[in-house]
Design brief:
The protein is an alpha/beta fold and about 350 residues long. The chain is built from twelve helices and 15 strands. Strands 3-2-1-4-5-7-12 form a seven-stranded parallel β-sheet, sandwiched between helices. Helix 1 links the parallel strand 1 and strand 2. The structure holds nicotinamide-adenine-dinucleotide. Nicotinamide-adenine-dinucleotide binds next to helix 1 and strand 5. The site of nicotinamide-adenine-dinucleotide has 27 residues, from helix 1 and strand 5.
Length: about 350
Amino acid sequence: MSNENLIVVTGAGGFIGGNLVAALRGQDLKRIRAVDIKPFEEWYQRFGDVENLSLDLNSKENCATAAKNACDIYNLAANMGGMGFIEHNKALCMLSVLITTQMLQAAVKYGVNRYFFASSACVYNGDKQKTFEAPSLKEEDAYPALAEDGYGWEKLFSERMCRHFREDFRLYTRVARFHNVYGPWGTWDGGREKAPAAICRKVIAAKVSGKHEIEIWGSGEQTRSFMYTDDCIKGTQLIMDSEIPEPINLGSSEAVSINQLVDFVEEIAGIKLKRNYNLSAPKGVNGRNSDNTLIKKYLKWEPNIPLRTGLEKTYAWIYDQYMARQRGDSVVEQKSSSAR
Ligand code: NAD
């Protein structure tokens, strides 16, 4: 195999990686290698016309196998989840540095053309996110560094490695700071899910069971912005193709409180629930929004799918998963995807 057009996606058994592979398949003349640590039957999406590898990328040898002959690498593999996961698994989150380090080294070893790293809004300084008024974070607000403990520090360090691999080894690196991505084909239960998926699932459970109550983590006043997966995939490719060497925000600037998020999902479900606030649950920073000045300047574009629109699609997908599981049938989740 030559490295003319082989695209490698790590974390391809997960949410964003799976959706990226699905999008790349629709584009011309791309050969794709999809890599994830999970056994194939646990991938959200798996395609027969793609080279699928189940490999632990904590290992240097496996990173070499993944990177060999690649033209582009999209490194999306990480051991991560929503607040409930990252607050209780800081060491595991930081160990993802092994994946990033070894994938960067393998990229240099095999002379890959381009390398993309998925960073996160969790790199931002916590002191700048204390108010509930959704402070818009500019790229420079990551410094002085006071990232989310564990997960955020790993992302900040890995961003920095991408920069130095670019400067010292001439590796073409691009880095996007994703802000809360949501949509179909992602984690919706089990402890790693993020707020939009968790709220959709809880509203569905309340509707199906007839117990019209919902537990909300924190006061519900925390603010965030949420980016629909299609915008994330489009932005990821635009940033990979761009002249933007420094880490850049990739997020929606439509900030809402968690209470507003619940309002939307209730509206979609056609139900009103009694809200029980769990003030001792993990809730993250008080407020965060994506400042999109820089992405608009460079790309003349920003993520723009309205939250209400994206939530409708996400709710419908999770509803199908939920009902399939109720029937004791997990088919919708993975197997149908290999035939898509
Ligand atoms: P995900 O958990 O659905 O996907 C990550 C995948 O990486 C998983 O399938 C997992 O099995 C795989 N992985 C973990 N350890 C691995 C290893 N040692 N070797 C090979 N594969 C391994 O998460 P996602 O939401 O798709 O996130 C993709 C990337 O985007 C991650 O780097 C994440 O940190 C970043 N990100 C996501 C969000 C978001 O809101 N989803 C926000 C900011 C950043």
